[in-house]
Amino acid sequence: MSMDKRVLPPGAFILKGYDYILQQRYIDYPNISFINKNKYNYIVIEGIDGAGKTTVAQLVVSELKRRNIDSELVYEPYTEEIRTLLNRSPDINPIVEAMLFAADRMYLHSEVLSKMLQDGKVVIGDRSFIASIVYQVVRGAPEEFVISINSFAIKPSLIILLDITPETAIERLERKKSKQLLHLEKPSYLLNVRQRYFDVLKSMGIPHHVINAERNINAVLEDVLSVILKNLV
Fold first, then answer.
1. Which of 64, 121, 166, 229 has a CA 20 to 30 Å removed from the CA of 141?
2. Considering the entire predicted model, what is its pTM?
């Protein structure tokens, strides 16, 4: 017997005949009331490993605060327990990895991020659910599965992609002695991740800007700040 699929925006796949579960509220998604608002500032810095996301995100928040703009930094993975587990298992099964990121993201979005946005803060994110749709899928997890388990995620209002070549990424990563490279040390892997970022951002329809991150940090920061300040709502 064939089983049709129905798609519930923004990506949860529910088998035909199971719709009543949602209708009867046996499955209850987080009550994030602001999600239907048209205006909020959740700006995410994305890019392949070595692009400088964390450094740029931290500097952006510092500069926004210096300008008296109420801003906060969030990062993924957020919880220390999941972050530690992922750091200890750099070659973990991609499906397990996707589930761990999704659980961590569920906590961050429902308990932390939603409150910040409700308070009108400008939130700068170091990665988002976009990274899962990129990284875990490149590593072998089914795209539909990764999208589905992240269906609760708050969509960024703006994504800034820091773009560098795989060669530059590997050079930078090798300078981080604490970084366990494994699959990250392969140029072909990073090339696939880089290309998928472009493909996913195009298909998701979320406003985004690509910044050349091959340059010195001051030039990159200046461009990133310029884009953010022009897009605040």
1. 166
2. 0.83
Annotation-wise, does 37 bind a ligand?
Answer: no
Q: Is 48 part of any known ligand binding site?
A: yes
For 86-121, how does the pLDDT look when each residue is reduced to its tens digit (9 = 90+)?
988 888 999 999 999 999 999 999 899 999 998 999
Query: Per-domain residue ranges for the chain?
Result: 38-231
Residue 47 known to bind ligand:
yes
Alpha helices in 142-186 (DSSP H): 143-149, 166-175
Q: Which residues pair with 123 in a beta bridge?
A: 42, 72
CATH 3.30.460.10 fits 38-231, yes or no: no
Determine the Cα–Cα distance for residues 218 and 45; give it in Å rounded to an integer.
16
Is the pLDDT score of 14 beyond 70?
Answer: no
| 125 marked among binding-site residues | no
